[in-house]
Specification:
Layout lengths: L1 H13 L3 H16 L2 H12 L4 H26 L4 H32 L3
Protein name: MFS transporter
Organism: Ligilactobacillus salivarius
InterPro entries: MFS_trans_sf
Length: about 120
Amino acid sequence: YSIVAAAMLAVMVVHPTPTIARLTSIAIGFFAAGGIWQVGLTILSRYFPLEKGRVTGYYSFAAALTYFVGPIVSTFILDDTAASLVHVFVLDVAVSVLGIIVMIILAVRCFKYKFI
């Protein structure tokens, strides 16, 4: 899911047209918002079965923090040009790629050390 969402963000950055924005936003909405929060929480609960409440709290706090910090960071990037909006999406692509890299590292560690 994350790879498809990151790819659609990259397409949106490379081809910033209204039609591409509509099509890629549908894909991003489906692949990024379609249960990915629940999957992440389930994985964390499997890593820390005795601390499910605490893990849920930390995970929910991190998600809420992104909703607060994202717009604040965006205001420093945005100015009065349309090109500045593309810079926000470039930052989003970078964060998505970083998330995919972390996910791959965790998957390798999971299989190597038999966590799950």
